[in-house]
């Protein structure tokens, strides 16, 4: 194909809706002021965009308090803020799923090492990917969980984790539950109350179809984590400037530095587009996923997806016997102009879980709303011509 | 005036050169991939833009090692990375100038409090703003400096600090010197070797005329700070993904999360434009500054600028007897469509130094390359009509 076939949407969705590009360019040219730091008209208009975007996000996760929506430059920074904002000492037990991204694992590993806290892996069945609640309960009995970090959708396998079930169990032991919604928010329902999580972290540039440069976290207004979480990134806030400490109120407490109004405006446009089209986006992606899985199952390649396809969406990891994933990815790029990703996908634990360390990880195909059925067919034909 | 007269360039320069908007929109639409995480053509092209931007920045500060240029989402994040990456304990003495921004002061204050380290203010003459080297030497003798943080150009007063002199003295006592070049890089010469600083922090969206969403720091390749500074923000790097620790090499060690390729591309265009026009930009800004200072001196308002106008550029803080700065700023906006800024400008210490705490700070006028002489005249006329 002349045109790029983009199957790396888990890295960043591409393209974005045209309205996102248009809004960003407009705000860049006409409203790119320092929000909350000037009292002139343009700065106030920029501030209105930020406020409205908080409201749109709050609505998406069904919370009524937009001030509980905290913007960060990325989901990675958001996790660093949260992890550093929690209390740490030698008594602390942290649980993570084997599906976590390094944006969660690396800050946790560093701080656990430093403080002598202990990191545990939540138990999942290696064949079906099912959560082993019984084994988890035994673990929790033995090591009372303080913090539980769960990804909502695995960035390697597309597995939708049973967040509600895990959170419910963890809360029984008094744990704080933090959700990585980077791959889910937008096309999987994220209702903070219903899921029972204290905080959800989001990335603007993935399934929200917004731009790079904005992510953040949303605090469940019914959680008491708000009072517990210390500020962890310090700097100017445009408020209370004579004070060497950060302001105490949300969201200012966690938002240091000039807000990226251009990225936030892009996210604003994306969220409005999403709201209009959410049902269609979800059903199209589900359909494309099922088609792709079906075709790949016919080919007999090794797929790393959960047994229950109801718990799977958008992302497929695979390997073909006799081929390294990076070889396949390279030929798909060079000969067929298909963008996929090979390797470990910034997820340190999942490859031991999947048994893919020795293969150099997996070949990952990830779908977006703008993919078409004929692109999947073209990918399958191309793959066949390489490996058979 | 119908058209906005923008005199808040110290917050963020506005507008940017048209090429910056164009490049950002282009990359957003056609090259917005996850740099370093995919091996397909688009991702490689994006990576080339990042590499070239590092080279342009390295060239600007006259270092030969582009890998010593670290990108962060903002100067604020860069300072948090640096401050958290240094060693801290009860023995540490940190010196700051009274002109520092809260992006420096707040992270330092937090970490000093936590570790029992001591924060000192470097001595400057309150009338002339001159650095008091003699008093500083006495202070250094008594409290051996470990870290010295100096802003290059004060974001409140436009004072260009004698960085070389301060750094030379501090280095005699073995201190690490960190330069806040957020307000200087671009229009004041920043030669890391010549200035004798270990690290310089930059903001893409100020005098580099790039966009929001990209800042960072540049390590002096002759400094040994590189080996000392620990990683402080953790996450995915697209490399060595099975490792729970960050990679050891520069710049990857300090760059976690998806790079903001759109912002970096905008900065890339800005740096090329800057390189072409740097002499004209500097001389125009100097000229405008002198004109503005001259006019304001004629009006007899209180100016907070250094005695030696050779050490002053672009930013003027002022107050008018009988008026609160926010009143003047508000009327300038509402009645004359002039954007200025009133208050404390995210600088906690300088208002005690200037004696402006009780006034509610200052009215700040800050110039950019795109300001014109007639805008200054219009501002002066407007100001006169308000206060006389």
Automatic annotation (TrEMBL), chains A, B:
A Pfam family that the UniProt record links to this protein: Aminotran_5
InterPro entries: Aminotrans_V_dom, Aminotrans_V_PyrdxlP_BS, Cysteine_dSase, PyrdxlP-dep_Trfase, PyrdxlP-dep_Trfase_major, PyrdxlP-dep_Trfase_small
UniProt keyword terms in alphabetical order: Coiled coil, Pyridoxal phosphate
Record-annotated Aminotransferase class V domain positions: 5-379
Gene Ontology molecular functions: cysteine desulfurase activity
Enzyme class: transferase
Cofactor(s) recorded in Swiss-Prot or TrEMBL: pyridoxal 5'-phosphate
Known catalytic reactions: (sulfur carrier)-H + L-cysteine = (sulfur carrier)-SH + L-alanine
Residue runs in coiled coils: 264-291
EC number per UniProt: 2.8.1.7
SUPFAM superfamilies: PLP-dependent transferases (SSF53383)
Family from the record: Belongs to the class-V pyridoxal-phosphate-dependent aminotransferase family. Csd subfamily.
Protein name: cysteine desulfurase
Species classification: Bacteria, Bacillati, Bacillota, Clostridia, Eubacteriales
């Amino acid at each position: 194909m002349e045109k790029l076939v983009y199957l790396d949407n888990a890295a960043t969705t591409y393209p974005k809706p045209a309205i996102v590009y248009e809004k960003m360019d407009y705000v860049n040219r006409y409203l790119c002021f320092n929000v909350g730091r000037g009292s002139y008209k343009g700065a106030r208009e920029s501030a209105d965009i930020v406020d409205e975007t908080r409201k749109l996000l709050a609505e998406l996760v069904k919370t009524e308090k937009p001030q509980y929506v905290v913007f960060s430059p990325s989901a990675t920074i958001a996790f660093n803020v949260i992890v550093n904002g929690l209390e740490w000492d030698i008594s602390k037990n942290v649980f993570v799923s084997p599906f976590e991204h390094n944006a969660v694992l690396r800050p946790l590993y560093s701080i656990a090492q430093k403080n002598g806290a202990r990191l545990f892996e939540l138990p999942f069945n290696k064949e079906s990917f099912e959560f082993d609640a019984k084994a988890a309960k035994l673990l929790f009995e033995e090591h009372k969980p303080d913090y539980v970090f769960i990804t909502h959708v695995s960035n390697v396998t597309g597995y939708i984790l049973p967040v509600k079930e895990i959170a419910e169990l963890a809360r029984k032991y008094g744990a704080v539950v933090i959700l990585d919604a980077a791959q889910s928010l937008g096309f999987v329902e994220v209702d903070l109350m219903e899921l029972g999580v204290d905080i959800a972290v989001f990335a603007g540039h993935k399934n929200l179809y917004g731009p790079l440069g904005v992510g953040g976290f949303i605090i469940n207004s019914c959680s008491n984590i708000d009072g517990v979480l210390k500020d962890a990134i310090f700097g100017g806030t445009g408020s209370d400037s004579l004070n060497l400490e950060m302001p105490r109120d949300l969201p200012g407490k966690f938002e240091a530095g000039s807000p990226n109004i251009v990225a936030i405006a892009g996210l604003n446009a994306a969220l409005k587009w999403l709201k209009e089209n959410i049902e269609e986006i979800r059903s199209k992606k589900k359909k494309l996923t099922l088609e792709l899985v079906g075709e790949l199952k016919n080919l007999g390649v090794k797929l790393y997806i959960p047994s229950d396809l109801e718990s799977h969406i958008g992302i497929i990891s695979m390997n073909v016997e006799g081929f390294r994933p990076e070889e396949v990815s390279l030929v798909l790029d060079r000969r067929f102009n298909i963008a996929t990703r090979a390797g470990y996908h910034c997820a340190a634990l999942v490859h031991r879980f999947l048994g893919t360390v020795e293969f150099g990880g997996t070949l990952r195909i990830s779908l977006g709303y703008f993919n078409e059925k004929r692109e999947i067919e073209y990918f399958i034909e191309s793959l066949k011509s390489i490996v058979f």
